Amino acid sequence: MASTSSNETVTQREQSIVLEDVKLMYTIFADVPPKTKLLMLELHRDNHMEYLLRGLQQLGPSFCALDANRPWICYWILHSIALLGESIDARLEDRTIDFLSRCQDPDGGYGGGPGQMPHLATTYAAVNSLITLGDEKSLSSIDRDKIYRFLLSMKDPNGAFRMHDAGEMDVRACYTAISVASVLNILDDELVRDVGNYILSCQTYEGGISGEPGSEAHGGYTFCGLATMILINEVDRLDLATLLDWVVFRQGVEGGFQGRTNKLVDGCYSFWQGGIFALLQRFHTIIGESMTLLDAGQANCADSPQTTVESDISDGEESLHGTSSSGDEACAIQQGVNFGNVDRKSIEGRAEREPLFNSIALQRYLLLCSQDPGGGLKDKPRKGRDHYHTCYCLSGLSVSQHCWSKDEDSSPLPRVVLGPYFNLLEPINPIHNVVLERYREAQEFFARS
Amino acid sequence: MESDEGERLPMSRRPEWSDVTPLPQDDGPDPVVPIDYKQDFTETMDYFRALYRAQERSPRALSLTQEAIRFNPGNYTVWHFRRQILESLDADLHEELDFVERIAKSNSKNYQIWHHRRWVAGKLGSDAAIKELEFTKKILSLDAKNYHAWSHRQWVLQALGGWEDELDFCQKLLEEDIFNNSAWNQRYFVVTRSPFLGGLKGMRDSEVSYTVEAIMANPENESPWRYLRGLYKDDIQSWVNDPKVSSVCLKVLRIKSNSVFALSMLLDLLCHGFRPSEEFREAIGALRTSDSEPLDSDLGKAICHVLQLVDSIRANYWMWRKSKLPVAV
């Protein structure tokens, strides 16, 4: 029951309201029969696709407020579609390339719409969109020489970047600039110079990273700062132990992540915070290697009473992991699912590791609390869907499904994918947040050209 | 026809605009993510594009940017052009602050507004400090964790001054909501950067006392725990050796509920060389839910084990921490 004590502060009151909503959802889930459970955990792929394709083709008048973010809307939609393993038809692809070309400034970089000033964030969104589309026509539509000049012109003498001409300077600007430069293979010493000092000055006493020096540690900026430091090969300058300790505490009993200490859970941080774990695992050898100490082949978690290790009911799956009562049931449900589409031989003896966050609890939050059954994903119960949350909830879902694999090319075991195995999304490159395969194609393309 | 004040004469029928040819958006024949713009929006932006292309920095251009911003306060190009016009016209920037305030009322989480505000306040200089602190205070009274408002406030303090009452301001916000991590962060900012206080070293004793009190009142509140650790940033030895730190851990452990942060801090202390007395061992032993297993002789391992139980969402993390513990002494 939500406490109605008048002594509660605003933070406590808001938190207990959200917790009530989430608990209610999990209680309903715990009480329904197994078949219904399975349905509840389903990723509504068809409805999400319908919602995404509709947005790509028409947006209502309320989107006037996002008129300076149209490449972002493209990216949120196209990346979501790619995560779902789908693609758009050739005609729609051509229309996207044409539209984004109209957002490209004659002097380099992309603006929020045709005729708008070039901006680092929309440049990032446009480049990631074109990489997600992926073919030669799409990739060659990016004017790399001019983008390089634009990036350089956004660099401040202190090493950080400004979002646009005389615009705001922050960690987001640094990330979008360095990410774009790296993926387009135009990153050089001049762009890198002193940006690490700026990021370092933004790591706070809490361990996370803030938007500007002095501000509060925040999930979005922590992701951006960490990814930047990895790309410029200066990640060891950060206090990673404290950063890890900070981010691990951002996951709440709801299963999802909050963006800052004592703030509310929000589905979009599934990526911003969850992605931090993927970055540390994949790109930081010291933490990454020691994470692999926890090998799934052994009876890992055997000394953890929260983890149920259940023997197989039907087909010899070795163990199931869950970390709370409702999770256990969710996992138990998986056993009833037909894994017919998985080659059992290929997944035996695969190298696995436990992620340092609770990936099953995160998937449960995303599927039960952040999903609009009519299509699209959202922040939390009672909130509405939007393209931004759809993109980052799905990105976080992909991270939580794939973070168990040591090797980024192996498909996850069914037991680490909550719900039916067809919930499995495409893996991403977590630094740029584009689907891994498209990232590799782009990397190859820009290495050649 | 509606007869409310929102009724608007199309620009094409206003004589003062008759010399301007509106410039439509170059969306192409078949754009993706097309927005079903309202007619007023399209017309305003068509005129905006025309003036922007011509770089017309005139009073009418200034008022047009105002209209365009009302339609979409996120359009950074419009804001940028507006700044250029304000400069060219040498406009009254106090009025500009009032305009920003009106827009911010309904859009307080938008980068452009705050960037613009910073630009205007920077032009006005230290005279604007009090007004800016008041403005952010007003925004924070509606949402005490507004990230942009806090960043702006920090910029104001550093660029324009006004540090004198800032610790009191933090104090007041923390009295209202001791869980407000943004206020804790601001407190840290003030303690470490205010030219009127003695810096971290000079403030540490009183800050530790304040923080310990906050922890004892709400041991489940993560903010003061992180703050406490922050007070010893770059001085780990003092943190390990200060009995006030270890004793607040012990006190909380003895309450036997909400012990996660106390356990976590004690674990960190141990990892950095803290030598625990028998009291700590007893307090940890008393937290075990079952007596079937003996308490691990390595206190670090015992703490990780308890944390795996009481903080199950982070069970993997605690297990990993256990695997990384320094060899017990």
TrEMBL record, chain A:
It comes from the Eukaryota. Transmembrane segments: none annotated. Keywords: Metal-binding, Prenyltransferase, Repeat, Transferase, Zinc. Binds 1 zinc ion per subunit. The keyword Zinc applies. Residues 304-327 are annotated as: Disordered. GO terms for cellular component: protein farnesyltransferase complex. Residues 43-434 form the Prenyltransferase alpha-alpha toroid domain. GO terms for molecular function: protein farnesyltransferase activity; zinc ion binding. Its EC number is 2.5.1.58. It catalyses: L-cysteinyl-[protein] + (2E,6E)-farnesyl diphosphate = S-(2E,6E)-farnesyl-L-cysteinyl-[protein] + diphosphate. InterPro entries: FTB, PGGT1B-like, Prenyltrans, Terpenoid_cyclase/PrenylTrfase. CDD domains: FTase (cd02893). Its cofactor is Zn(2+). GO terms for biological process: prenylation. Heterodimer of FTA and FTB. Belongs to the protein prenyltransferase subunit beta family. Catalyzes the transfer of a farnesyl moiety from farnesyl diphosphate to a cysteine at the fourth position from the C-terminus of several proteins. The beta subunit is responsible for peptide-binding. PANTHER family: GERANYLGERANYL TRANSFERASE TYPE BETA SUBUNIT, PROTEIN FARNESYLTRANSFERASE SUBUNIT BETA. This is Protein farnesyltransferase subunit beta. The lineage of its organism: Eukaryota, Viridiplantae, Streptophyta, Embryophyta, Tracheophyta.
TrEMBL record, chain B:
GO terms for molecular function: CAAX-protein geranylgeranyltransferase activity; protein farnesyltransferase activity. GO terms for cellular component: CAAX-protein geranylgeranyltransferase complex; protein farnesyltransferase complex. Residues 1-32 are annotated as: Disordered. Its EC number is 2.5.1.58, 2.5.1.59. Keywords: Magnesium, Prenyltransferase, Repeat, Transferase. It is an enzyme of class 2 (transferase). InterPro entries: Prenyl_trans_a. Residues 1-17 have a biased composition (Basic and acidic residues). It catalyses: geranylgeranyl diphosphate + L-cysteinyl-[protein] = S-geranylgeranyl-L-cysteinyl-[protein] + diphosphate; L-cysteinyl-[protein] + (2E,6E)-farnesyl diphosphate = S-(2E,6E)-farnesyl-L-cysteinyl-[protein] + diphosphate. Its cofactor is Mg(2+). Pfam families: PPTA. PROSITE patterns: PFTA (PS51147). Essential subunit of both the farnesyltransferase and the geranylgeranyltransferase complex. Contributes to the transfer of a farnesyl or geranylgeranyl moiety from farnesyl or geranylgeranyl diphosphate to a cysteine at the fourth position from the C-terminus of several proteins having the C-terminal sequence Cys-aliphatic-aliphatic-X. PANTHER family: PROTEIN FARNESYLTRANSFERASE ALPHA SUBUNIT/RAB GERANYLGERANYL TRANSFERASE ALPHA SUBUNIT, PROTEIN FARNESYLTRANSFERASE_GERANYLGERANYLTRANSFERASE TYPE-1 SUBUNIT ALPHA. Belongs to the protein prenyltransferase subunit alpha family. This is Protein farnesyltransferase/geranylgeranyltransferase type-1 subunit alpha. It comes from Acer negundo.
